[in-house]
Amino acid sequence: MAVGAALEVENIRRCYGSVVAVDNVSLVVDRGEFVTLLGPSGSGKTTTLRLVGGFEKIQSGAIRINGERVDGQPPYRRDTATIFQSGALFPHKTVTENVSYGLQRRKAPPAEIRDRVKRILDIVHLDGMQDRYPNQLSGGQKQRVALARSLVVQPAVLLFDEPLSALDLSLRLKLRAEIKRLHEELGFSAIYVTHDQGEAMAMSSRVAVMNHGHVEQIDRPERIFNDPANEFVYNFIGESCCMAVTIAGGSISDGRDPLDMHLKTGLADGAWRLYVRPSRLKIDAEGCSDANRLKATIQFVEYLGDVFRYHLKAGALDIFADHPTRLDKERGDAVHLAWRDDDMKAFR
Amino acid sequence: MAGRLIPWSLMGPALAIVVVVFGLPTLQMARMSFNLHSSQGLYTPGFTFDNYVTLFTNPVFTGAMRTTVQLALLASLATVAIGYCFAVLVWLKPARWRLLFIALALCPLLISEISIIFGWWMFLPKNGLLSHVLLSAGLITDKISLMYTEFAAFIGLVYITLPYAFFIMLSVLDGIDKGVLEASADLGGSPLVTWKEVLLPLTSGGLQVAFSQSFIWTMGTYATPSALGPDTLWTLGFLVQEQMLGKHNWPLASALAMILVIGVAAVVVFTGMIMSRRSRYHV
Questions:
Q1: In CATH, what number does B60-119+149-282 get?
Q2: Of A82, A90, A91, the CB nearest to B186
Q3: Which residue from A139, A162, A192, B218 has the fewest beta carbons nearer than 10 Å?
Q4: What is the largest CA-CA distance in chain B?
Q5: Chain B: nearest CA to A296, how far in angstroms?
Q6: Helix, strand, or coil here: A320?
Q7: Chain A partners within 8 Å of B187 (Cβ)
Q8: Which residues does chain A have within 8 Å of residue B177's beta carbon, measured at their own beta carbons?
């Protein structure tokens, strides 16, 4: 058994000209862990993945796989395997030839290659497709081949580069569950890059939220959701409405006009941004015991399937709140919003 | 019935041009190659195999065939090799370099073959640019002339066909997802293995097209090899011209041209056959 975590990334940095793409990122992936890099485009998540895979060179820091420094080595010497967004299957090779490629490079005996390829194709539900060429496969099947091609070599770390983003929604959900199942079954270590927070939440052991080339927070998905480290993470994960208010001597205003708002815990004077998730905002909560309140008027209603989303206005603030049923109210009617202290985050 | 006519009627105009402009003259040339030589006019109508017998027995003509094929083969191989490397380089480099390289490759196409030959006449002789540069760089001690050598003919041919090979290869490369190179490296393929296992099979079709294109050109052209090569460099193209305009022997010139056409067609069909076998994944 090798020593150290499957992957250790230590203060890596990569600039392109004056743009810092990856800025002192550190990350540890334990054996069997599924870590997601989540962030908006341009946040450096894909570059981080490519640095680990060896497609780009780090300018400082260190990368260790199973305790061994690999940052000076080319991709073909690193024990990683990437599942690319485009799939990047070899178009001139059949499914079997594609999946065998990595094992052939590792000089595995032909009998072993045959067995392992057959087994992995069974696992990803591609039996019967062995002799097809990539252009004879559907988008979902192609990504399964890409998955099989990387899984079969049993690398120290699997690197997923937004493998599902090119697929349509239903297929994406299906393959997402399948990757999760494979992870449970095979116990591989992986880094998964995505900008889809649903994917990140559903699949990961831990999520690293990235922004402007550095990691804002790295933690278990439920901790990221419920206890975000800062405003960016709070904003990026889940939906939230932002109320920009100014507090001065106990009175609360939207910056110009006073608001009919009451906060249980007083905040210091100054400009604040208060965040509450729309699902935690109670509408029409006149007799409610929750301590934080705001009076607002209804602008319009959206029907979202599970809930009705009420878009409201209070002074200059635009707020939206979800309610399970349609209210007996119309545009312009006043409602009372209420929320618990625990459900609010305040940033200044 | 109408459904079957539509493709033909759409192809019609192009087909008509091919038949009238290429097909009929070739047929006429084939017929001419069986006519008799006349000492007065250009030919005497008749039917004889003599012209072909002459071509395959007279050492002047058999020698010319060997020379032509040899020169065309060498020049085409060199063209394809250089064009391939150049195209791969442009394909791999960032897009900002691309336009510059494409403009460079276009240059030879903007100049006529005759002007290019005049250019070589400035460049290759004893008092030419090349000699001066090599001398002042200290690489040679005495002025040299590369003019009127087989090497000059070879260089001239490569220069003319290179842009075509380059653009053919670049268009083939542009159809390839560069991700496959990374995928290969990622799975343990060294650069050499990646080239052999991935890039070469994906570009082999383009290599064959580029090769046949260069080969057709270098087999047929006569101005460049006869203007740059030695007096003894007799290519088929040169002999066709000589028989036609110098010796006024149209039947023999036609027979020579027929050999050229059939030889080139054979190469094209042959490469086409290899290609269709290789590219079955483009279903």
A1: 1.10.3720.10
A2: A82
A3: A139
A4: 77
A5: 53
A6: strand
A7: 76, 81, 101-102, 105, 149-150, 153
A8: 86, 88
Residue A1 has pLDDT above 50, yes or no: no
Mean pLDDT of B125-147: 88
Give the pLDDT confidence score for residue B94 in this predicted structure.
83
- Who among B177, B187, B197 is closest to A81 (CB)? B187
Mean pLDDT of B235-239: 89
Closest B-chain CA to A131: B281
Spans of all domains in chain B: 60-119+149-282
Q: At residue B198, what are phi and psi to the nearest 5 degrees?
A: -115, -60
Q: What is the pLDDT of residues B194-234, one digit of tens each?
A: 999 999 999 988 998 899 889 988 998 888 988 999 988 88
pLDDT band at A264 (very low <50, low <70, confident <90, very high): confident
pLDDT digits (tens, 9 = 90+) for A284-301: 766 666 678 888 899 999
Overall average pLDDT of the A75-83 stretch: 95
Q: Which of A56, A76, A147 to mutate to test the interface with B (most CBs of B within 10 A)?
A: A76
Examine the pLDDT at A98 and tell me if it is beyond 60. Answer: yes
Cβ–Cβ below 8 Å for B179 and A84:
yes
**Residues of chain A whose C-beta is under 8 A from some C-beta in B?**
53-55, 74-76, 80-82, 84, 86-93, 101-102, 105-106, 133-136, 149-150, 153
Residue A42 to chain B, least CA–CA distance (Å): 19
> Which chain B residues contact residue A105 at CB under 8 A?
187-189, 193
3-state secondary structure chain B: CHHHHHHHHHHHHHHHHHHHHHHHHHHHHHHHCCCECCCCCCCECCCCCHHHHHHHHCHHHHHHHHHHHHHHHHHHHHHHHHHHHHHHHHHHCCHHHHHHHHHHHHHHHHCCHHHHHHHHHHHCCCCCHHHHHHHHCCCCCCCCCCCCCHHHHHHHHHHHHHHHHHHHHHHHHHCCCCHHHHHHHHCCCCHHHHHHHHHHHHHHHHHHHHHHHHHHHHHHCCHHHHHHCCCCCCCHHHHHHHHHHHCCCHHHHHHHHHHHHHHHHHHHHHHHHHHHHHCHHHC
